[in-house]
């Protein structure tokens, strides 16, 4: 039985890797797209099998626990839906000649490598391995952001690349420091990097070293989370890359980095003398939230708009985890899941909109609910959801964050609410402009599969009304660990 | 035996089902009739169920917890006296509105943007009233806002409507945030979101004060308290008329329900100053609201502003009830509270009626601007009659219902000298004066509304083409008019019907009214004050008919039609009539100075010059300029400044990262 | 038996106000004429006017609606009921509990409401002028009146006129600042409500200065008679109000029997005469003010009334 | 561990910091690159020394990489790029040399303070090494943010990465060091090629990073 379940983990890793190898050699883009979808589906199934099979004992490199199982399933699921979406998206890009067949081969291979990297980051039980995996995922996305080879795309990719590399370096230094802190206690060698070992012994580590380490890790991985003022790469990368990649970036990659930050927060939480990660994260979260909220107003490019909204939500999530406590942590986890689903759904819609309207300029898109009801209302629901209105999932998490914060630290809740309202105003303004009014821009009917975005929205809706018991149990357990 | 609340929950469920079906089949021809028919039936069924509950055992409470919503709390619903009363308000309004919609909906230009959201809106309001934990409450509350927002955006091609919708939803979520914070305080760090738990846990004085303020912000912004009312006169008229009726007549009442539920029920014993706050806000809201209404020339906006006035009246008497309750004067508190609830019911009647009338005018002439109407009494006889009934009721004139409730409010005010606190002693009479003023102004306002719209001569060609509206609409309006009269001449029934609510929330009730001779109402003692709407009505009827009889018996019957006296000029053009603006001019000169910073400038041509003299009036929406423009300005400023961060070079961004790193390291180095 | 007696008294009251009203007007006019050394019309001239109007044909404007024709009866009925509810020669009448002071104010309010509507019905600018000015005046006079009612109610502990009158008759009243203020306010309001000088001139027909007359400009014949009678009743009502509240001497409960009723009636007539003379003197003494001075005049009344009420809230003995 | 080995390790690490300061001081591209080459050489020495004293033989590979790749290949490549671009004129420093030096000193003290808070139980060699490594990293960042020129930014980044390698090798028995250093070399190669590509494709008229930024997608 354990044997099989280990296979499940292995499958999660090797299916994408193998698929990448295969895709790199396939000529026909339709077939590559199909294979891409198939591989993603298989990965998803493998991930789902983790629920039924019992979990393997944590090894030196791999680990499955309550925390990452949710992430993995979410990751593979969004990965799958995105691959479906990109299959219907890429065709149009090929027609318009923005991409060529070789581009596509490269694109699909990269897509699988990225999935591999992210899954590896989740299942890895070794902070060094996790670092490598995160960087792998980052670099692949850099390449995909630049895939259009346009001035803007390359420029965005370059910015992403430079800032990312610095982040990489900082994170690595943090990792080294953690090793140094662990080494005297745990002893030399790989064990001093095995997370499940570290978390047990963390109480005896050198607090000062841990604190410095956490700052570097927070900045390093925080760069990828997109926390202000480390966010600079995020908007352009979202805006200039292919939309499926924007969806994956917002929906998944940010989560990967966040996951890394959380792991290390756990480590620090286990060591009482070290600097409390809470205040740092709360500050960063609030800064990002309010900053992004204001930035939302002057946006002209619809994808950049939603990129900033991702920053805003990352801010909320980091804030929630910074607050700590069962309610806030629960809310943070829930918010993260809901945000991935919603934001990727929004990007699916935006992708098709940009295709039918032939532009990403907000000012040139009007009256979508008239011209393209399917897309328009999907966008409306998506934005309503992302703005934290009921009966959709994000409302529940925001409800928990705000109310619990106000009960504990009223003065923290005020800026939080302030930021939320500012952001809401901006999103609503833009939504009103885009979805209502006299239709403007291309009227061509969409040839798009609504399945991915509406399935996401359906999930978000369901979660807003009803959370299944096992999910709640996991979240509560994890929230307990997160302290 | 299935519990009543479970039975009641089937209603919203059915409404949501209807909404989904409507979304699917909204473009079908029969959809309109089906949706409104279904809504009518469901609301009526809910009404019957609640009525049965009230008739059977009004004191009884039935609760249920569904495995939905917040995992560890569940979705809790509860039916008690208060929610039962408001369910009556909601579903009575809903049923009649659906009846009206059966006819009015046919004129809808974009049914697919109205039909799906209309039942959802009704369902949302029902759920708010039933909810028994913070999460379900806010969920339903915001869902209600969302559905009504969609309805406001129904005619989205109009720029003004889009703006209205945006402002509305922003204000709505502002209110929700305030409520969220209030519930956060009530729930405490442990997060006990169930209302039952909140009831037992009494917050300390500061927390209680904060909750009251937050409730005034949250519920007040939805009900339209000044200065949070800015969205209301924009959003209510923007929606289709029957939806406007729902928003003005019913949704504001749901907001009041929220306020009562938290402040009177969950918060425990109030502090005496809480009464002052609510009283003052209520009084100011009443006066400012009706003054704005007087200055309006758009019929539906006028009605929306008058909603604000009535909300003010209701809040003022709620404040009175709070003050009495805080000073352990239960009977007085019961009187004030009953007055408030009675006015809630009445306002839901006549405001819906008036909006229906406005809708009828709109569908008959296509005009909302009173300056283009006039003389409709000849074209729409029935509509004009019921509209007149509505105007008389809302102007608080006997023997109609508006007067009955305002009379109770005044009686409550007259009890307040017994209050010990000096603050209250000074505030209450001032507020009484404000209420009296607003009542008088309301009469003036509706003289204008009816006079300019229905009387005089037609001011535009659209009026000549107008025809009486369909039977459904007329039926709905007639029903409401009847209710206005009945509630006015038989207030005793309503007051006794409200006793369970006051008993449960105040702990006392007004004396039983049905026992009084001749069905008159006696709040305290007959020697003190009493009012018999029925008798007044009968007297007026008798004496009027007596007079008519004698006239026709003894006086001449001769009657001749002639042209009106035009000061020697034969038949002046209709434009020479008094317009809405000119009608309001004397009052503007009296009150405009401080309320609107109104300025009049007259340009007289030189003697002998032929160009016309011009009178220019410029008015300001003071609350907007004081409270809202600074905010928008600040946001503009901030965004403009921050936006530069989007345009930096990579090196600058790196510098940001670098500085951040160094700062954090410094913090760490200085860490104790 | 007692019930029948009470009913009879009530009926007598209603009839008497109806019959007395024109006489009162005639008397006022007579006194005014005398004051300016004119002969003046006979005291019963108003009756003659009414009868003549009854006989004349009605000239209706072409576009007058049914409302225009119904209004006179409504105005008359509302005013009459209101007048009938004010104790004149006796308190505690059969139906006095059917309505209190607030209701009486409101009844007059509804009469005004319909009058203003009727003024706008024909669609001439005069009607508009009259209606808009009338509601402007009312919007200040009504709150003032209500505040007066408040202070009376606070003193007497009731809004029930019979109770108030009985209380004012009782020795425990004494002299109170607040009552003085409300008396002045009440007089000012009464002047405004009855369209007397200096607020309005009942005799003028110069369009730009009229308020009440402008509204009823289009009325003629029996309709005009109804409205005129209603305005007579209104004057009577205010006078009886003032007399029963501030000069309650000789006012006894109707249950006390015929003799006291007779005394009450005599006293009542006396009071009316005094008030009428005072009114006439006042009207001849002052000049009519500009329409837009009226708000200041009534604002003063409002402030006085509010002050009176405040004083009472602060201390019941003031 | 004998004092001598300890001192030598110290000497090397310290001299690395010193060389970083020299980089701050340089205002010519060629000179900068040469200094960097020196930096790489010293790094290679210190890594080798660590390999010797920890007798961890895989570290020799890292040392080799540092020597061959960073001390020779990259500098030569950069030289050629500069030739191609003809930008062997002054570096446009964003901040004057003086302030930069001062900031550098401040950074070094900061890192010292931070690391000296570490309890002495930690291996003292590692502790001192860390202090040096941290200062090298911060100085590298400083170079990146005070220089306008893409090439010098690359150089700054590489010196930063040298600091990382120093720290990694200083950490006894740390796994994956070699892999990481390889990965980083690849990363740097990417960056260098990126700079190079942008030039060759005639996409940007200079490798002044400012030129990369003139389009923000939302330029008004």
Automatic annotation (TrEMBL), chain D:
Signal peptide: none annotated. Its main location: membrane. The keyword Transmembrane applies. It comes from the Bacteria. It is found in: Cell membrane. InterPro entries: HyfE-like. Keywords: Cell membrane, Membrane, Transmembrane, Transmembrane helix. It is a multi-pass membrane protein. The chain crosses the membrane at residues 6-25, 32-53, 59-82, 94-118, 130-147, 154-171, 177-198. PANTHER family: HYDROGENASE-4 COMPONENT E. This is Hydrogenase-4 component E. It comes from Mesorhizobium montanum.
């Amino acid at each position: 039985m354990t044997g099989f379940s280990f296979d499940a983990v292995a499958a999660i890793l090797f299916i994408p890797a193998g698929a990448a190898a295969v895709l790199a050699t396939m000529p026909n883009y339709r077939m590559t797209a199909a294979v891409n979808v198939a591989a993603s589906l298989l990965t998803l199934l493998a991930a789902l099998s983790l629920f039924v099979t019992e979990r393997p004992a944590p090894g030196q490199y791999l680990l499955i626990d309550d925390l990452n199982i949710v992430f993995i399933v979410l990751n593979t699921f969004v990965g799958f839906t995105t691959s479906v979406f990109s299959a219907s998206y890429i065709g149009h890009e090929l027609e318009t000649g923005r991409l060529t067949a070789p581009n596509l081969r490269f694109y699909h291979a990269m897509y699988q490598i990225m999935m591999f990297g992210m899954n590896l980051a989740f299942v890895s039980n070794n902070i060094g391995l996790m670092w490598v995996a995160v960087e792998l995922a980052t670099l692949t996305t850099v390449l995909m952001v630049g895939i259009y080879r346009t001035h803007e795309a390359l420029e965005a990719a370059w910015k992403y690349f430079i800032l990312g590399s610095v982040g990489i370096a900082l994170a690595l230094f943090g990792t080294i420091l953690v090793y140094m802190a662990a080494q005297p206690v745990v002893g030399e060698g790989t064990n001093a990097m095995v997370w499940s070992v570290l978390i047990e012994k963390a109480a005896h580590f050198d607090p000062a070293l841990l604190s410095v380490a956490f700052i570097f890790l927070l900045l390093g991985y925080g760069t990828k989370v997109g926390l202000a003022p480390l966010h600079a790469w995020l908007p352009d990368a979202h805006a200039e890359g292919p939309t499926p990649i924007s969806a994956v970036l917002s929906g998944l990659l940010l989560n990967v980095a966040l996951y890394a930050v959380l792991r290390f927060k756990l480590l620090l939480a286990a060591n009482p003398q070290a600097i409390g990660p809470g205040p740092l994260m709360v500050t960063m979260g609030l800064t990002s939230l309010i900053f992004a909220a204001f930035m939302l107003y002057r946006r002209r490019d619809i994808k950049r708009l939603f990129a900033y909204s991702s920053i805003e939500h990352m801010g909320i999530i980091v804030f929630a985890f910074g607050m700590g406590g069962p309610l806030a942590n629960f809310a943070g986890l829930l918010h993260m899941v809901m945000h991935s689903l919603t934001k990727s759904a929004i990007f699916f819609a935006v992708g098709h909109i940009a295709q039918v309207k032939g532009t990403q300029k907000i000012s040139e898109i009007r009256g979508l609910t008239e011209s393209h009801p399917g897309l328009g209302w999907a966008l409306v629901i998506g934005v309503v959801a992302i703005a934290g209105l009921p009966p959709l999932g994000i409302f529940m998490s925001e409800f928990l964050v705000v109310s619990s914060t106000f009960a504990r630290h009223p003065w923290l809740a005020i800026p939080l609410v302030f930021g939320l309202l500012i952001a809401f105003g901006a999103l609503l303004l833009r939504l009103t402009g885009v979805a209502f009014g006299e239709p403007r821009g291309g009227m061509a009917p969409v040839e798009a599969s609504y399945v991915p975005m509406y399935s996401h929205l359906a999930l978000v809706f369901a979660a807003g009304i009803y959370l299944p018991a096992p999910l709640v149990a996991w979240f509560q357990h994890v929230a307990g660990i997160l302290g | 035996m299935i519990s009543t609340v479970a039975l009641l929950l089937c209603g919203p469920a059915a409404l949501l089902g209807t909404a989904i079906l409507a979304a699917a089949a909204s473009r079908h021809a029969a959809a309109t009739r089906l949706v409104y028919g279904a809504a009518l039936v469901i609301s009526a069924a809910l009404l019957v169920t609640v009525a049965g509950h009230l008739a059977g055992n009004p004191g009884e409470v039935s609760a249920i917890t569904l495995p939905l919503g917040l995992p560890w709390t569940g979705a809790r619903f509860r039916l008690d006296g208060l929610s039962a009363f408001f369910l009556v308000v909601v579903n009575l309004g809903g049923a009649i509105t659906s009846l009206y919609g059966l006819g009015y909906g046919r004129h809808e230009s974009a049914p697919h943007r109205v039909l799906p959201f209309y039942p959802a809106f009704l369902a949302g309001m029902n759920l708010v009233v039933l909810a028994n934990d913070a999460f379900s409450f806010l969920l339903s509350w915001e869902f209600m806002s969302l559905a009504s927002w969609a309805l406001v955006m129904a005619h989205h091609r109009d720029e003004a409507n889009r703006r209205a919708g945006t402002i509305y939803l922003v204000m709505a979520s502002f209110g929700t945030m305030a409520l969220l914070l209030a519930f956060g305080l009530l729930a405490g760090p442990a997060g006990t979101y169930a209302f039952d738990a909140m009831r037992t846990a009494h917050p300390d004085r500061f927390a209680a004060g904060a909750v009251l303020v937050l409730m005034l912000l949250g519920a007040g912004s939805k009900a339209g308290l000044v200065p949070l009312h800015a969205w209301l006169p924009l959003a209510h008229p923007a929606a289709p008329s029957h939806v406007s009726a729902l928003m003005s007549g019913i949704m504001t009442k749901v907001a009041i329900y929220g306020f009562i539920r938290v402040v009177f029920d969950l918060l425990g014993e109030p502090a005496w100053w809480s009464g002052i706050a609510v009283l003052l806000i209520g009084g100011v809201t009443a006066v400012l609201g009706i003054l704005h209404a007087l200055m309006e020339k758009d019929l539906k906006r006028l009605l929306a502003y008058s909603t604000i006035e009535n909300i003010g009246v209701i809040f003022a008497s709620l404040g009175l009830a709070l003050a009495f309750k805080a000073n352990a004067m239960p009977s007085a508190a019961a009187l004030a509270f009953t007055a408030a609830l009675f006015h809630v019911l009445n306002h839901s009647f006549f405001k819906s009626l008036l909006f229906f009338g406005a809708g009828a005018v709109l569908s008959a002439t296509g005009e909302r601007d009173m300056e283009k109407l006039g003389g409709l009494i000849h074209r729409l006889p029935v509509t004009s009659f019921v509209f007149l009934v509505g105007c008389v009721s809302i102007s608080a004139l006997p023997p109609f219902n508006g007067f009955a409730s305002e009379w109770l409010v005044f009686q409550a005010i007259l009890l307040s000298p017994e209050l010990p606190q000096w603050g209250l002693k000074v505030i209450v009479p001032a507020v009484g004066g404000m209420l009296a003023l607003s009542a008088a102004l309301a009469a003036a306002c509706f003289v204008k509304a009816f006079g300019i719209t229905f009387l005089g001569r037609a001011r535009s060609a659209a009026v000549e083409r107008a025809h009486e509206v369909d039977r459904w609409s007329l039926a709905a309006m007639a029903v409401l008019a009847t209710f206005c009269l009945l509630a006015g001449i038989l207030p005793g029934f309503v007051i006794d019907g409200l006793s369970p609510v006051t008993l449960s929330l105040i702990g006392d009730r007004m004396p039983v009214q049905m026992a009084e001779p001749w069905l008159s109402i006696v709040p305290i003692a007959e020697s003190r004050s009493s009012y018999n709407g029925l008798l007044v009505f009968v007297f007026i009827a008798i004496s009027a008919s007596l007079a008519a009889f004698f006239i026709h018996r003894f006086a001449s019957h001769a009657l001749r039609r002639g042209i009106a006296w035009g000061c020697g000029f034969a038949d002046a053009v209709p434009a020479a009539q008094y317009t809405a603006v000119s009608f309001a001019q004397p009052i503007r000169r009296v009150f405009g100075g401080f309320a609107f910073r109104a300025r009049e400038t007259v340009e007289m041509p030189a003697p002998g010059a032929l160009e016309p003299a011009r009178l220019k009036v410029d008015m300001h929406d003071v609350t907007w300029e004081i409270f809202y423009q600074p905010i928008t300005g600040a946001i503009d400023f901030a965004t403009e400044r921050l936006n530069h961060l989007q345009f930096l070079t990579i090196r600058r961004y790196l510098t940001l990262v670098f500085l951040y790193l160094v700062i954090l390291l410094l913090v760490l180095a200085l860490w104790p | 038996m007692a019930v029948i007696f009470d009913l009879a008294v009530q009926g007598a009251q209603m009839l008497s106000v109806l019959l007395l009203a024109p006489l009162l007007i005639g008397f006022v006019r007579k006194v005014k004429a005398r004051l300016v050394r004119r002969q003046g019309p006979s005291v019963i001239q108003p009756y003659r006017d009414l009868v003549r109007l009854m006989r004349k044909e009605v000239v209706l404007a072409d576009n007058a609606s049914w409302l225009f024709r119904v209004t006179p009866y409504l105005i008359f009925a509302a005013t009459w009921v209101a007048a009938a509810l004010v104790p004149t020669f006796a308190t505690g009448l059969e139906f006095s509990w059917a309505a209190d002071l607030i209701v009486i104010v409101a009844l007059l309010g509804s009469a005004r409401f319909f009058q203003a509507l009727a003024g706008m019905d024909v669609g001439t600018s005069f009607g508009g002028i009259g209606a808009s000015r009338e509601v402007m005046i009312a919007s200040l006079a009504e709150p003032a009146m209500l505040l007066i009612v408040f202070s009376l109610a606070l003193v007497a502990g009731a809004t029930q006129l019979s109770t108030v009158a009985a209380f004012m008759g009782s020795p425990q009243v004494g002299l109170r600042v607040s009552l003085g203020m409300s008396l002045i306010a009440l007089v000012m309001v009464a002047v405004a409500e009855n369209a007397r000088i200096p607020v309005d001139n009942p005799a003028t027909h110069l369009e730009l200065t009229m308020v009440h007359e402008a509204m009823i400009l289009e009325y003629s014949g029996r309709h005009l008679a109804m409205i005129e009678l209603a305005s007579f009743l209104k004057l009577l009502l205010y006078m009886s109000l003032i007399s029963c509240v501030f000069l309650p001497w000789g006012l006894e409960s109707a249950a006390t029997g015929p003799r006291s009723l007779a005394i009450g009636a005599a006293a009542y007539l006396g009071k009316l005469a005094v008030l009428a003379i005072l009114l006439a003197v006042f009207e001849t003494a002052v000049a009519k003010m500009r329409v837009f001075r009226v708000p200041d005049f009534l604002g003063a009344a409002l402030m006085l009334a509010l002050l009176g009420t405040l004083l009472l809230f602060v201390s019941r003995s003031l | 561990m004998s004092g001598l080995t300890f001192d030598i390790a110290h000497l090397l690490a310290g001299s690395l910091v010193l060389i970083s300061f020299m980089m701050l001081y340089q205002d010519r591209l060629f000179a900068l690159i040469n200094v960097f080459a020196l930096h790489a050489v010293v790094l290679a020495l210190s890594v080798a020394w660590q390999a010797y004293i920890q007798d961890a033989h895989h570290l020799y590979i890292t040392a080799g990489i540092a020597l061959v790749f960073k001390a020779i290949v990259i500098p030569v490549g950069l030289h050629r790029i500069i030739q191609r671009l003809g930008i062997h004129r002054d570096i446009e420093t964003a901040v004057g040399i003086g302030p930069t030096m001062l900031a550098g000193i401040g950074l070094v003290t900061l890192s010292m303070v931070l690391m000296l808070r570490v309890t002495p139980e930690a291996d003292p060699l590692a502790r001192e090494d860390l202090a040096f490594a941290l200062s090298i990293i911060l100085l590298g960042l400083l170079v990146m943010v005070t220089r306008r020129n893409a090439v010098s930014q690359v150089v700054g980044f590489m010196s930063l990465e040298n600091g990382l390698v120093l720290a990694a090798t200083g950490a006894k028995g740390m796994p994956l060091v070699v892999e990481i250093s390889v990965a980083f070399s690849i990363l740097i190669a990417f960056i260098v090629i990126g700079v190079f590509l942008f030039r060759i494709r005639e996409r940007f008229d200079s490798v002044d990073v400012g030129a990369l930024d003139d389009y923000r997608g939302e330029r008004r």
